[in-house]
UniProtKB/TrEMBL annotation:
It is found in: Cell membrane. Coiled coil: none annotated. It comes from the Bacteria. The keyword Transmembrane helix applies. It is a multi-pass membrane protein. The chain crosses the membrane at residues 21-39, 45-64, 103-121, 127-146, 312-339, 345-366, 378-397, 403-423. This is Lipopolysaccharide biosynthesis protein. Keywords: Cell membrane, Membrane, Transmembrane, Transmembrane helix. InterPro entries: Poly_Biosynth_Transport (IPR050833), Polysacc_synth (IPR002797).
């Protein structure tokens, strides 16, 4: 470990992850407070309906979203390192235009599909109008340009501060709605305002940093004309869009499948378990956000990015196992204390899903390494195959075994995704060694 800490790359990733952790830790606590107030202030059926409205918009946004932040880091970061601000500006302009276009298309599609999907989702007729209004958030939900801009400019501290905005506003509104017995409409409004405000703050912070560097014109949208000056832009964004749409939609679609199989109340229980599991995977998520920008500054033919990925994967796996043990011991008491005895039934599901934490945290470097060597199509194929197997399995096991079946499906799907991602990563590493005669990869190298 001493040798790891002496590695400047390792320290850089841990520093950036530390910035993000400072915001995520507070955000996770505030998010749980908001959920707890909603769970106690609403009936299980209304709580589930609130989660369906939120996850529907998130799910559509995830499907429509282009991972423009990855494109900005891949093209804009090297351009800035060599002093080419014109290419960096074009990268952000193209990403801005793509975000705006996909966001508007996603919003219109979500509104048109909602009346058709409402019956399948178990959404009450009275909740249809709030759900339609909530779909207007899709354009801001799909925007990844401001995040990519701040990462390109190495302002992880600003991203950390912004991460508190949405959960803080959501928690404040939820507490107020709970104490005043304001009802279902107040909770929907709280979730809406908090999401919108958080997204707008992120855009404002990114604009301020661009202005400081005399690059504010980068937020002027551009699409077809700008793309012609960026070779390979369309191929990269389409591949990563599909791959990350699959990944980002995994959670919302899972909740919707459970809702269709077991109803809104069960969907609420599944959402509680999934939220707690998601909270425990944040350390790996934070490491990933710091890992990808760093390896894009490295030579893929060298040992450095692969060694860094192995070290961070092992470290993250150890943390993941510790988190699983904590969930096993404290899951039921935490759910009972936060949400009330009506939701303790989610504890058994949580214990099953907990093992997916160890798997996903250990595997987090794989996707970034594949993007580094230009094998984003392999990452897409892995995620697509895993999802195509997971969703039917989730529906079948949920209808057969109830919520326990949903938990086992999540565990199997996570393991399958990690295995399918590992295979092309190992192939890429061995291909690198075929042309590079350095010493083999090792922990102490």
């Amino acid at each position: 470990m001493k040798r790891w800490i002496e590695d400047g790359l390792f320290r850089a990733v841990m520093r950036n992850a530390g910035y993000l952790a400072s915001g995520k830790a507070a955000g996770a606590i505030l998010g749980l407070l908001a959920l707890a107030c909603a769970g106690r202030g609403l009936t299980p059926a209304l709580f589930g309906t609130l989660m369906i409205i939120h996850t529907y918009a998130n799910g559509v946004g995830a499907l429509a979203k282009f991972q423009t932040w990855q494109f900005i880091i891949r093209s804009g970061t090297p351009a800035l390192l060599r002093g080419d601000t014109h290419v960096a500006r074009d990268t952000v302009r193209f990403s801005t235009g793509l975000d705006l276009t996909s966001g508007l298309v996603g919003m219109i599609g979500a509104m048109l599909l909602l009346p058709v999907m409402a019956r399948w989702l178990g959404l009450p007729h009275a909740a249809l109008l709030p759900a339609l209004l909530y779909c207007t958030l899709v354009p801001t939900m799909t925007a990844a340009t401001p995040t990519g801009t701040l990462r390109m400019l190495d302002r992880f501290d600003l991203i950390a501060s912004q991460q508190v905005v949405t959960p803080a506003l959501r928690a404040a509104g939820a507490v107020l709605a709970f104490l005043t017995h304001a009802g279902f409409g107040a909770f929907v409004a709280t979730w809406y305002v908090a999401d919108l405000a958080g997204d707008l703050v992120l855009w404002a912070l990114a604009a301020r940093e661009l202005r400081r560097r005399d690059m504010l014109s980068a937020f002027r949208p551009g699409l077809l004309g700008v793309a012609r000056r960026l070779p390979g832009a369309w191929g990269f964004v389409w591949t990563t869009n599909v791959a990350h749409s699959i990944y980002a939609a995994w959670g919302p679609l899972s909740n919707l499948v459970v809702a269709s199989a077991l109803g809104p109340a069960a969907a609420g229980l599944f959402k509680i378990a999934a939220t707690l599991v998601d909270s425990t995977t944040k350390p790996a998520d934070l490491l990933s956000r710091g890992f990808y920008p760093e390896i894009m500054r490295l030579d893929p033919a060298s040992r450095d990015p692969w060694r860094l990925g192995l070290r961070l994967g092992l470290l993250s796996a150890c943390v993941g196992v510790g988190l699983v043990l904590l969930i096993m011991l404290g899951g039921a008491p935490v759910i009972g204390a936060l949400f009330g005895h009506r939701y303790v039934a989610a504890a058994g599901l949580l214990q099953i899903m907990a093992w997916s934490v160890a798997i996903s945290t250990a595997a987090f470097p794989l996707e970034s390494l594949l993007y580094m060597v230009g094998r984003q199509k392999a990452a897409l194929a892995a995620q697509a195959c895993a999802t195509l197997a997971y969703l039917p399995l989730l529906d079948w096991l949920t209808r057969r075994e109830g919520l326990s079946g949903a938990g086992y499906a999540v565990l199997i799907g996570t393991a399958l995704n990690a295995c399918l991602m590992l295979l092309p990563t190992l192939q890429s590493y061995h291909a690198r060694r075929a042309t590079d005669r350095h010493a083999p990869l090792g922990l102490a190298a």
